[in-house]
Amino acid sequence: MAAKEEVELEELIRNAGGGEAESEEDEGSGLDLTTLLMVARKSLPWVLLLIGLGLTASWLFLRYTPPIYRSSSVLKIDEKTEAGVLGFDIVGGDKQSISKLSGEVELIKSDLIYRRLKDSLMLDVNYYVEGTVLERELYRISPFIVSYTVQDGSQFNVRFAVDFLDKQRFILSYELGGQEQSQEYRIGQPIKTPGFLLTISNTGFFNSETLENNYYFLINDSGAINNYLNANLSVAIENPDANTINISFTDKTPLKAQDIVNKVDTVYLIEKVLKKQEVERRQLQFIDSELYKSKEGLSKAEEDMQSFAERNKAFDVKSELTAIASAIAEQEMERQRLLDKVKLLIELRNTVDSDRIVGQEDVDVMQAIPALGDIGDPQLPQLLQQFNNQQLALQQLLKSYKPTTTTVQLRQEALAFTKKTVQDLLSQNQAVLQKQLALMTQQRQQMEARLQTIPQKVTEQGRLRRPFELLERYNGMLMDRKMSYGIAMAGTIPDFQILSPASVPTTPISPVRTMVYAIGLAGGIVLGIGLIAVRYLMHNTVTNIRELERNSSATVLGVIPTYDREKMAVSKLVVDKNPKSAISEAIRSIRTNLEFMASSKKKRLISVTSTISGEGKTFVTVNLAAIIASSEQRVVVLDLDMRKPKVNLAFDSPNIKGISTILIERHTWEECIQHTSIPTLDFISAGPTPPNPSELILNPKFDELLAELYQHYDVVMIDTPPVGLVTDGILIMRKADVPIYIVRANYSKKAFLKNINKLIRANGFTKLTTILNDAKANGMYGYGYGYGYGYGYGQGYYEEPTAPQGLVGRLRKRMSS
């Protein structure tokens, strides 16, 4: 039927447009919200179905997709560089920190850590149980355990199926050379395969349910384990400023993911401790070697210093210089004191030798006696005192006696003896002081000679002291470092902290149920919207009066609702049976509008046409004629669709004679007139199908027929052929007072409305009106009633589609509506 409608549409365009190329834009182009809402409402069940399918697909995805779990931990790396051992500062701290963290990341993902993981977690054998839908890994809960010895490694990563017959017997199956090998064995029995020597033993998880399940295991090689770890282990720098690293592992088994992360932390800890101990051991070795070299150098420097001290009889030359300078200064002061003593002795001698008596001038021996204490001769002060007393006594005696007196002479002799003794003592003391001065001079010369050699000794001692002191400090520093590293090695700890240890994940990271259902819901909604959009874009039929008004410039007389009281094979007169029905009211409204359009004429010719067959022009013609006839107007219906006559079928009458026989003057119109159940409504059928319908209509006899009918009827209604297929209808429309164009909702193509506009422009049909037929309640602006009918054209026209039969037919109709 769709192919026939396309042919009809092409004929319509050729007939109406005269073969001209379409150059005008569609009237009323743009988004039609009413049509869109109508399409959306009709598509709502399909949208709900698509949403349900989307949610069902999400459920199936979750049902048949194994969940993936992730366990993670956070490590804090304590930045501590071994370059600080010698006291050097690190330049570019941020870059150094990031570089160190990147190095730690690579260390964690290295084969070194992987080897320790494989040794500690036994990742080489994986155990699985087959379920109804999915298989599940039996991590740490396997009812059996496999020990193996590699023969040639040809069966790595090969599936070995285990089917337990009882607690002691099982069947082991595997594929070899494209063929399955299967054999029964006992628990603990050595099993020799091309690749392994296997032994299967029961575990504490073996129970009665084990016999009902199917198991298999895989023996992985190093490459498979490394690929597994690389694919699921993630190590990333979480916060460079805080020196934190995140370690996470994804797996279908939550406990396995946690164990691997914790074991990574553990083996990383062990590796860091071993690495740290190795570094400290090497540093101790270096320190020991440097200590040996330092001790040898220090011993030689000590020997050089000792040789220098023995050779120069001084350990510290600079202190010797100070001592010599101090000694010279002290000697100078002592020499000055000796010179003062010599001077004093000379003056005393001169005084004693002068024979001046006490009191003469200023010479007084008693004045010099106190200064004689420093000389160190105790007799000299006494003799000087005696000499002074004798002088005083002689002086007093001379005042009474003459010098020739014996007493005076005795006193003079005693004074002379004392004087001689004093002079001898003074000479002796002066000689002693002179010897001391000579000795000081000799000592002074010796010290000055030593002083001249001091700079050379200072230079030599400084040259010897510098390596000695450097080696001494270096040796002390090495001893201190050795002690520190010894203490550190006694309590070595890793330079990182586990801020957040791994835990058993309870919620899978993939698939996320909420997200999967959201995607399924969104997918269903998107597909539903897409369906609505596609159906809207592919919607090419007129569905409501708004589309008719938007796309056509003709006046709309009214809307006829759908009639579904009965299913009819052909058009029938229904308004006489249901005068109070909604369809009757709708046609009365159309009659009222017709009265307004032709109020000045008492006699009217009304033509009813459509684009193609099946749009309901015959149904509208007979029922509109019946409604007009019920208003006490005489109405006659002429069936000019002589190729596919239908009016007689609507009135359930024969079509033996009619318009065709009248126009060829075989019968008169009175002979062909047929009466109906309505007294004021008659009709003339089309009559036998002629070979030249168009020529008959152009015959003057047709105009004469109309003139005669005007004498007896108020309204002449003509059911014309479809103008989209033949031109007969256009010829009749030119004679009509009110040409009516029928558009059937959900049947007539929107392109047909262009034909109406072209008819108006090309033929000047300014009074052309339209009626929307078979409109659903949603296309009638709230009319809410309906009807249904069928048509059966033949003899050269396309057949109208009949009502779909069965569930498939109804669904197909629903899909296309």
TrEMBL record:
Its EC number is 2.7.10.2. The chain crosses the membrane at residues 43-62, 516-538. The keyword Transferase applies. Residues 604-759 form the AAA domain. GO terms for molecular function: non-membrane spanning protein tyrosine kinase activity. Coiled coil: none annotated. The keyword rRNA-binding does not apply. PANTHER family: FERRIC ENTEROBACTIN TRANSPORT PROTEIN FEPE, TYROSINE-PROTEIN KINASE. NCBIfam families: eps_fam. This is non-specific protein-tyrosine kinase.
